[in-house]
Structures are given as C-alpha cells and as structure tokens.
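CORE FACILITY INTAKE
Project code: CF-77B
Contact: R.S. (postdoc)
Sample description: multi-component assembly, two entities in total
Requested service: structural model of the whole complex
Turnaround: standard
Below are the sequence entries exactly as provided by the requester. Do not edit them.
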Amino acid sequence: MNIHQTILQRIVKLGLLLMVGVNMIACSSTMEWKEEVKLHDGQVILVQRHFNLGGYLTLDASERTPLDETISFSLPDSKKTILWKTEFNDRVPERNSLSPLLLGVVGGIPYLATSPAGCIAYNKWGRPNPPYILFKYVNDAWQQISLQEFPTVLVHANLIGKPAASLLKPYYNVEAAKAEREDGNVSDYDKTILREPIRSAGLGCPALIRTGDGWKSRDWFEDQPTREACLKFCEREKVSAESCPCHSIFKGAK
Amino acid sequence: MTTPTDIQYALMAGASYISNRPDVNKFPIPSDWSSVKYDIKDSGFEATSFVPTGTTLTTSSEIVISFAGTDFSQVSLWPPSLGYDFWNGNIPLITGVAINGADQLVDAVEYYLQVKASVPAGTTITLTGHSLRAKGVTH
C-alpha cells in the first residue's frame, strides 16, 4: 500500500465519522410532559417536566441522554410558580445529576427528594446512604437539608422517571403516573424514602477521587507503598489538597 | 492461574461501562472476579481492571484490563461538543490526528503502563473492550 492510498483511506474514514458526528449533533432535542402529582395529604398538583437532550450513549443506543431537567409547578395555595433544575454532566467536578423522586408540600413549604444519577454523581454528592439528596424551598431558593429535616410524612415516591422516548405521553394523570412509576425494575429506595442506611447503596460504584482531568478509584491511592508515594501520586494526578486521600489512608503511618 | 473464558472477557468488556449506565443496565462482573483501578477522564476515556476475587494487582497472576466504548452522550447542538468522547477517541484513533490535544490511545497506553508498573514481573495482563476500545485494543 502506498502513502497516497493510506491518506485517501484516512480521508474517507474521517468523512464517514464526521457524517455520523453531524447526525448525532442534529439529533439533539427536548422532551417534556405534564404529570399529576398526588401529595401526601391527597391534594393533586400539576407538574411540568422538561428535559434538554444530548446525544446517544452509544451508536446502538435508542435513548438520548439528558443534558438537564427542569421541574415546574405551582403551590396549591399561593399559586406561586416554583422551578427546580439539575444538569447532567459527569465531566465537571460540580455537584449535579439528580433524579427527582418525591415532591411534597408540608405547611406550605415545598420539599423535594432526589437521588444521585449514576456512579460519578453518587460520589460527587458524598456517597449518601440512604442514597438521597433532599431539598427544602426557602427564601425563593432550594436549600439542601438532612434526612432528619425532611418531613417524615413524605414517604412514597410520586414523580415518574424519564420515560422511554417511544412511550412518552404528553400528560400523565395520577393513575398513569403510578403505573409508569411501577413499570420496570425499580429499586426499593426509589419507591420509598428510607430512613436507615441500606446495604446496596453504592454497590458496583467505587469510591472515586477527583483528579485534574477526571476521576480515579480510591484504590489507586490506597495501593501506593507509602504516604510520600501517595502524595506524589496526588500531585502527578493534579488532585487538590482537599480531595487527596493520602492522609486518611496512611493515618498513623510514618 | 485463572484464565478468563471468552464469555468472561465479554462480560468484563461490558462491565467497564460504569459512568453512564444506571444500575439496572450495568453488565454483571463475572463471578469470582473483582473490579479494581477504575479510571475515567473528562475526555470520555474509561477503563477498569479485573482480578480474581480475593487477590490484588500485586498478588494476582492474571489481570484483565477492560476499556469502555464510545460515549456519544453530551453532544450539544451548537457549538459541537469537541471536548467529548467521539472527538477525543474515535477521530484521533482512526486518523492519527488529535483534536484538542486529547488522544485516548495515549490514555489507554498510560493506563496499561500504570497497571503494569504496579504488578510483579511475569504477571499476565490481557486486554478486552467493546466498540471503540476494541479497536484500541487491536492497536
């Protein structure tokens, strides 16, 4: 094979790949629906769900991945419109990527229970167990609260997960939303807000440390022979002083 | 020595997709094997290693490195998501031209060398992967 044929082959391959890439970009879209949400006291409110979508996980995937989600609803009494938004991006260190599970209004105050979506998000949020990130709406902003602060009357999940695009309906009444939530393989901790740690939390999801250009599992650091070697590894991987786990791993070691 | 079967290699190839799969869609890890040294870069590069359960990199005589395939997610309408996997992995691998200075073939080699450096001489290291990374493995 001569050099001209090699260059030609590469140009053809690049052209084909660019065509696929342009197709992926052109497929970006949105997804939205309205759903009736039954609150713990029996009231029903209407919630608008909106996703901005990116590309596909793989060439053979049928579902686009979400870039962000916005939930909007009006409070039953004041009719004040409230928004909640999360972005889905594992490639930034900031905390994001949450899946909403339960929306509640107690004493006129909105509460939202979510769980981290995916292994990196689970690590970003500090590997909570039970695996919830909880919010309370105060002073026109969502504020993260502890499980102890989350009202005990809010128990059962009442928000549906992102449906398959091909099965999406524009409107889900209470019964349809319940059927959607119960369809498929849903973990117990996604059905009910559990109050005790669970054994399966974080299973198959290693503890991760943020590096300068990604994430590494903690065993990369644990397997270093000495504290000094571990610190050098942190330096090499551009791990921040706060994130470097060497002092806790080699606690007590010389 | 515990040599993986073809099916175990296939499961390991799927099990390195950790970052972008909900739990219910993750591949199971073959029984008697454990995942160690997981690494994911912002470029989209993702890999993990497997050792027989109960062993470590330094005590196992057999190690399998698994590279995950292309992640096409996070593609924005405009501007094109040049920072992501397709541009950092597929294009450099096929054309030999790195965009944004990212080259996942280099990431893969570096990962392999890091694993190799932490195991005793004579340890058998084999590679597996799906899609883009299967291509990388053949390089």
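Facility notes:
- Chain B touches chain A through 47 residues (CB under 8 Å).
- Residues 6-70+107-138 of chain B form one domain.
Invoice: internal transfer
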